[in-house]
Write a structure and sequence with these properties.
The protein is an alpha+beta fold. It has a single domain, classed as TTHA1013-like (TTHA1013/TTHA0281-like), CATH 3.30.2390.10. Helices cover 21% and strands 43% of the residues. The protein has a four-stranded mixed beta sheet with strand order 3-2-1-4, with helices on one face. The chain is elongated, with a radius of gyration of 14 Å.
């Protein structure tokens, strides 16, 4: 059983987008703090009333966030 739910974060324009690796959950926000709150809320709503064993998850999984940094060109 998994104890971690993974999200990939990227930034396009003025918004950060978080896409679930393990769950079909996507959310966005203007700040990373707001995005963190949105991820927690989206995961809770997605899993509310669900049998976590069907997702192969432990009863209290953690959330792991991977942030993709843009490539910088240095001359």
């Amino acid at each position: 059983m998994k104890s971690i739910i993974q999200f990939q974060i990227s930034k396009e324009g003025n918004y950060y987008t978080a896409s679930g690796v393990d769950l079909p959950v996507v959310t966005q926000a203007k700040t990373l703090d707001e995005l963190t709150r949105n991820i927690k809320e989206a995961v809770n709503l997605h899993l509310e009333g669900e049998d976590l064993t069907e997702y192969n998850l432990t009863p209290k999984p953690s959330v792991l966030i991977n942030f993709e940094l843009p490539n910088k060109v240095y001359a």
